[in-house]
Design a protein that fits this description.
This protein has one domain: Class II aldolase/adducin N-terminal domain (L-fuculose-1-phosphate Aldolase, 3-Layer(aba) Sandwich). The termini are far apart. The longest helix is centred in the C-terminal third of the chain and has 24 residues. An eight-stranded mixed β-sheet has the order 4-3-2-1-5-8-7-6. The chain has 250 residues and is α+β, with helices and mostly antiparallel strands. The chain contains eight helices and eight strands.
Length: 250
Amino acid sequence: MTEPTVHDDLAAGRALVADACRVLATEGLVDEVLGHVSMRVGERSLLVRCRGPEEHGLLFSAAGDVRLVELDGDEVRLGEGEGEGGFRVPVELPIHTEVLRARPEVGAVVHAHPPEVVLCSILGLEYRPVFGAFNIPAMRLAGSVPTFDFAGLVRSTRRAREMVAVLGDSPVCVLRGHGLTAVGATVEQAVVRAINFVALARMTAAVAATGRPARDIDERDLADLPDLGSAFNDDQVWRYYLAKARQNKP
């Protein structure tokens, strides 16, 4: 299992979270100013993508948009100087703080609004392993992703804890009519998991649109599919998406 990464270099952490936001926007998981990424920093703080007074959206995220948030019991506040320039934490910050409180192995949280995931949640479609080597990590998410049956903003600690209870030890949770929350030991892993789950949702919606039945892949085929490990499934894939986002930088 990949160990959670704890960053002492705040500058590097800010740059990484900003890169993650641009990747998510490039891949269509977030649009305009909605969605956010966080990264654990030590035991009592996190870096999170915030909004400033001249907000231009996640596609244009910069390291300066990522601010340090401190946790003190149930109290959450921006670190000293982090609110300068009019920066504010996301309304749904409790998604991040409560996941990090409950899951010590998690080092990063992604909250995004992919249209394909929203569509599947509206229709109540089941995520099934209907493909194999096409995308092995995405296929392995089938049947393991729970749905939080609440379509409003997760802006209170109470509501976030309800979501966390539904998430359990899963890597991804769907929020009905809203989007998804994905977690990982690292920012890179959380982002790639979110992208993989969208690939599964996209295929699920496409199959449903045909009106034709689809069978799950055979058990013997499933047994033949290898786990290529995080170095391949997360790190190399992340580098591809990051290079793509940088090449297409507005």
